[in-house]
Every structure is written in structure tokens, then in C-alpha cells.
Amino acid sequence: MHPGIAWWQAWSPSARPVVITSGRRRGKSPDARLDGRWLFILALGAAALVVVALLSALSTRPRGEASVRRGRPPDADEIAGFINLVRRPTRLLSRADIMAAFGQKAYFLLELNGEIIGLIGWQVDNLVTRADEVLILPVVTPEQGLQLLLYAMERASAELQSEAALVYVDRTLARSPVWRDSGYEATGLGRLSIRAWEEAARESFVPEAQLFFKRLRADRVMRPI
Fold this sequence. Notes:
By secondary structure, the chain is of the alpha+beta class. It has helices at 3-11, 30-59, 76-87, 95-101, 142-159, 171-174, 178-181, 195-203, and strands spanning 66-70, 106-112, 115-125, 128-136, 164-169, 185-187, 210-215. A seven-stranded mixed beta sheet has the order 1-2-3-4-5-7-6, sandwiched between helices.
């Protein structure tokens, strides 16, 4: 279980035990109520310090330790926990959700000292690479994390003879200069010159996300591989 999820569960109101007392109800003095409030505030403060300490510890480690590897089915629990931590969806993802996703896409995981701090979910279909999940925690710069993830995806895409890459990212990551420096251009639906690329962009559409495009091959593959 990801440390962030474990902390959330520990301090979630639904996770606190309910104490049931029997007999005559006894009132609490103002001092007792005040002490209880202070204890609760101190507990929340301590929990926040744990999270800050975790992020600080990761961010102060050498950047050279960040690396990328392929995600595998045994990583499904960690991948689900990471996505839940970053996106905070209304319905939390489970191991089963990620296992089902593995049937359609692959994952590259960005790690720092054994902890997942970023990922990219991608697939190649009809010789077009599509990525609709790019998530990076702020323990490394977006530039460093993006460079590693994009390079891994492009290298794997080349092995599959992919002609172009289409990547959807949120508006924060879209501001990174890495896109321009890596040869990507910001685009949108209806602006791609090749019909197959346009169809791929529409099929992978992510609302409220910026689409980036990069041509991976100078020549197009005219015959099925």
C-alpha cells in the first residue's frame, strides 16, 4: 500500500473507532472538552508532519536515483494506490481495475529509491502511440520526470514501428518546456494532418487535457507489419 493511502486511511473520519458507553451519561467539563480539542489538533498536526517529512526525504535524495521501469501485473496494487493518491477519484481504483487496464495499455513507472513517484500509461494501436495518463509527484522536477518517462515510451514505441506519439496531459504538466525541447508540439482535435492520427486522438480524448504530438518516424509504414 502506498504511504499516502495508508496515512489517509489512518486519519479518515470513517476509520476512527466509535466508543459506546453504557449507564448514565456524564457531562464533560469545559476544560476536558478543551483538552480533547487540543489533542485532536495536535494529532492532525503530527499526521501532516509525517507526510511533509516523507516528501522532504524523497525530494532531498539525489536526482540521479530516479529511474524508469516497465510496470507489471504484480505492481497493480502499487499503481492503483499511486493513482488514487495523485488523482483522488470519487471511486478509488483497485487492483482489479489496473489488471483490466493491463489488457489495453502498458505502464512505465518512475521510481525514486524504490517508491513510485510517477507513471505514464500508454499503448500502440494502428502504428500510433497514445498516452492518456501522465502523473508525477512534485518530489522531482516535472522536467526530469517527463524526460525519463517520454524517453522510455518513445524507445518502446520505436520497437513497435510507431509513426507518431499522442500524449494527453493536465494543464500543469503542459507548461513544461520539456515538450518543446523533446520535439512535441501542442495541438488539438481537427488539427492533425493524417487521418489515422486524428482518429487515434479522438479515440483517446481526455477532457480538459492538453494534447501533444510528435512524429516518431520520417516515413510512414504503408504495409501492415
